[in-house]
Amino acid sequence: MTGLGAVLLAVGLILALAVRDRLTDVDLSMVGWIVAGVGVLLIILGLVQASIGRRTEHRVVEDRDIHTD
Q1: Among 3, 44, 46, 69, which is least packed, fewest CB within 10 Å?
Q2: Mind giving me the DSSP string for 31-59?
Q3: Residue of 15, 17, 36 lying closest to 26 (CA atoms)
Q4: Statement: residue 21 has pLDDT above 90
């Protein structure tokens, strides 16, 4: 998820800061800021998800039958 977020952030910043063109009734600068914001959110969510995954404990419980006669 963080890889996609980084790509969206880069594309959004290029649109917001480097492109000085307008399509018909579409402000590419504003679209760039929105895409960059979504990219930042994806990066944050990916980091939080990875952090939660590292804190989870996994235990294996083996049940052994011991017969004492």
Answers
A1: 69
A2: HHHHHHHHHHHHHHHHHHHHHHHHH----
A3: 15
A4: no
Strand-pairing partners, residue 26, are: 23
Return the CA Rg of the chain: 24
Buried b (16+ CB within 10 A) or exposed e, 38-48: ebeebbeebee
Measure the CA–CA gap between 19 and 33, rounded to whole angstroms.
Answer: 12
Q: How far is 69 from 41, CA to CA, in rounded Å?
A: 63
Q: What is the pLDDT of residue 69?
A: 60
pLDDT digits (tens, 9 = 90+) for 33-68: 999 999 999 999 999 988 887 776 778 888 777 777
